[in-house]
Amino acid sequence: METLGMLMEGFAHAFTPLNLLFVVVGCLLGTAVGVLPGLGSSMAVALLLPMTFALDPTAAFIMFAGVYFGGLFGDSTMAILMNTPGQASAIASTYEGHKMARSGRAPQALATAAIGAFIGGMASCIVVVFLAPTLADISTSFGPAEYFALALFAFVATSSVVADSVLKGIASLILGLGIATIGIDSVTGTERLSFGVPDLFDGISLVTVTVALLALGEVFHIASRIRRDPASSSIRRSGRPFLSLREFREALPAWLRGTGIGLPFGVIPVGGADVPTFIAYGAERALDRRRKPPQFGKGAIRGLAAPEAAGNATTGTAMGALLALGLPVSATAAIMLAAFRQYGLQPGPLLFERAPELVWGLLASFFLAMIVLLILNLPFAQLWAKLLLIPRPYLYAGIAVFCGLGVYATSSSVFDLFLLLGIGVLAFLMRRYAFPIAPLLIGMVLGPLAETSLRDALLSSGGDYAVFVSSPIAIVILSLLLIAVLISIIGRFRARQRKDF
Questions:
Q1: What angle do CA 159, 160, 161 make, to 5 degrees?
Q2: Residues 6+ apart with CB under 8 A from 52
Q3: Which among 68, 480, 23, 98 is positioned nearest to 273, based on CA atoms?
Q4: Per DSSP, which regions of 67-225 are E strands?
Q5: Which are the contacts of 3, defined by CB distance < 8 A and separation ≥ 6?
Q6: Residue 220 falls within a domain, yes or no?
Q7: What are phi and psi of 355, to 5 degrees?
């Protein structure tokens, strides 16, 4: 009952005209950026981050949440219409969704995606309202050893599960940890990796890194391929812009199964919505093989409904893990953690006590964002595709200018603009050679936490490394880490065996 009471207070805070406006603006911006090829919610949040420091924290995070949710739907819109997923989380939706669009069922495919996003997102919001306070209570028993184990879990799980190559994932993670150590050590006052450059004594801003990696790197990537990738042909529109009762009944079990698959992945550090969408698609494909005749490969509505619900079911629980534990499980969550720190806030159990209006207003805004997205996207989803009419050179040139303006506005430093350019080139090379971005971001965000926790644990134990396996919570986290690594190794070994045959 206490949780419901706090949620009602959150709704009272979220229903103010200004906060409602920021919900709508966030949903519009997230969807608009999501429909652009190669872009997504993480890039939208990264671009908005420098622009929101003048806002009230609650308003800023309500808008970020709308961008986060809207970006996932926008990614799927382009995956369905143009076979061009905005992010990896929308790849599974292309398999059957684009076939539906090519057969003249684009309105039904978009409606399936919108309803699936709503069901998965609402279920995750309901879960997180009751789960986040419980996670926050549990996390009060966390000490330095437990937080170090949690950070280690995020590092290893993200770098080994998300990346196609474990070595590339670990290399990306190490690069992020290295960037996080640049500057003056807060404990010893020692200069680290700054090479005597005064501008690096305060370290490298996470805003600069995120904008360079997610936005400018993508601009360089698109520019390098713009002459080789002709624009996709448009999809013919026909049919009714809604689902029939038969189609709704066909999709409903897949929506529910996808939601069930996606919910746990919101608190597991495996990169966000990418993994559950493929699991949900694979489950529906396995079930379809038992049908006579099988529908997959012909535009099966279940093949679109399940991954859409699974991907959006991770959003609320991912925000719950961020708010209650301070644990970012995706690139977007890592950027939002940086935003909390820019406002002088630290996600975790104390956040619920120190800023209850922000926390519960934000949780209430999740429900509003889901409703706003359904209202916006059911009747108007196809209109987002018209953004592709903007010539790509002008579009991406504008994004590059916006990146520079945003970074300069936060620091007023020309040196940061050179850093932006250099890291943008690094991001381009990472994309060129298939190095994942998420481990680098999570390494940079959680690196300071891991370092501080490691030092505090060793100081409290007199240098005894047994402190890291001396508590039940740390043992459980490390055991889960070991299981995750073993599952990943076994899965890769089996995949290699199948290739050999």
A1: 100
A2: 60, 63, 64, 339
A3: 68
A4: 183-184, 191-192
A5: 129, 130, 133
A6: yes
A7: -135, 60
Q: How many residues does the chain have?
A: 501
SS3 183: strand
On the question of a cis peptide bond just before residue 294, with omega within 30 degrees of 0, the verdict is no
CA-to-CA separations, 316 to 127, 327, 405, 408, 443, in angstroms, rounded: 8, 13, 31, 32, 22
Angle at 224 between CA 220 and CA 230, to 5 degrees: 120
Answer whether 306's CB lies under 8 Å from 253's CB.
no
Helix, coil or strand: residue 297: coil
Which residues, other chains included, contact 346 with Cβ-Cβ below 8 Å and sequence gap of 6+?
326, 340
Among residues 386, 300, 383, 388, the alpha carbon closest in space to that of 112 is found at 300
* Structure token digits, residue 393: 């050179």
Neighbouring CB atoms inside 10 A of 233's CB total: 9
How far is 111 from 412, CA to CA, in rounded Å? 45
Within-domain flag for 61: yes
The single residue listed with the structure tokens 């076979």 is: 83
Tell me, yes or no, whether 140 lies in a domain: yes
* pTM summary value: 0.65
Q: What are phi and psi of 192, to 5 degrees?
A: -130, 120
Structure confidence by residue, pLDDT tens digits, 195-236 = 888 888 888 887 788 778 877 887 888 888 777 665 444 444
Residue 163 has a CB neighbour count (10 Å cut-off) of 21
Find residue 184's DSSP bridge partners.
191
Our count of domains for the chain comes to: 1
Q: How far apart are CA 305 and CA 288, in angstroms?
A: 13
Helix axes 356-380, 301-325, angle to 10 degrees: 160
Residue 234 lies in a domain: no
What domain range is 407 assigned to? 2-229+244-500
d(Cα 366, Cα 121) in Å, to the nearest integer?
8
Structural tokens at position 49: 């981050």
Which tens digits make up the pLDDT trace of 290-342?
Answer: 777 777 777 888 888 888 888 888 877 778 778 877 777 666 777 788 788 77
Which tokens is 232 given? 């996709």
CA dihedral sign, ordered 99, 103, 106, 112: negative
Tokens (6 digits) for 250: 């066909």
